[in-house]
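[Solved] Which block belongs to which protein?

Original post:
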Amino acid sequence: LGSIPFALLLTRRRGIELRNVGSRNPGAANVLRSAGVGPAVAVMLLDAAKGTFAVMAARLITDDVAVVTSAGVAAIVGHIYPVWFGFRGGKGVAAAAGVFAVLAPLATAVAALVFVVTIAATRFISAGSIAGALALPVAAVVANLPNPIVTGTLLAAAIVLVRHRDNVSRLMTGTERRIGLR
């Protein structure tokens, strides 16, 4: 489920090969720059939905929190490393938001708030993604969530941070693109 490349599918319908434009990353931020706000919002919602559906499907099979959380983390990994496109996918932020919106709604709301406030303050989507990823496990611990969910938030945060390592380098050198710049 996580491997469905909504960003690539939606931009191809518009004649855009996302892996050849902008950051070349098949994610919502590159969709925003190359195709506009509408498609970017659609990609974010669809990517979040695949994380949500993975967790909901697992819950239909079992009540084991560790198994359900693992299904969600698997959807995030599938999103980042899709088998259909040479294991080159997005950065996992929206998929993780969908997973943890179901497993840890309050922690996800805190992370989303941190994401939005950071973007508003810096105009860097990557900074918001990194800050939100760091806030998620902290909020999960503060909310005293079950250990498998906390572990899942830590794994998701680590994966998102690793996927943003190039962005961190660009942030540090002052070459990262702000919202509104193509």
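(Second protein starts here: sequence line, then its structure tokens.)
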Amino acid sequence: MNRFLTALTISVAILGAAPLSVNSPLDTLDNFKYETPTGREMKIPKKTKLVIIAFEKDTGALVNDYLDTQSPFYLPKNNSIFIADINKMPTVITNMFALPKLQKYKHLIYLHYGEKFQNIVPNQEQKITLLHIEEQKIKDISFISTQEELKTAIEK
């Protein structure tokens, strides 16, 4: 009986995880698994100041198009990372088309495949989510939709 209650409590805690908000610790994002397009597991660096997150194909393309015009070291130099949540993409499409295309980019992309991520991280339709980090805590959450806004946020 005790094992059942323990398992139930853990399940409820995981499924009912609170959404990220201002003052949430950055390491909350470490509860999720990220991979590069080549399959290498990644962790979020502690020095990160900006987390850029795309939940849709169009917003991901906007970020990739902008970053493709920059140096491969542009994001690390600005203590920023880019996470593309691709959980809605069918596996066949991901493996046959998306991953080969993503592997050609010179910038680092963190891919997330699980559906719980979108329930925890605030997002808006057709917007890129920005998590502004200070002292390893989320200090601001904003949403953008243009490359100019993206540039301003990264270089701030």
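Accepted answer:
You had them paired correctly. Confirming on the second one: Residues 4-16 have pLDDT under 50 and may be disordered.
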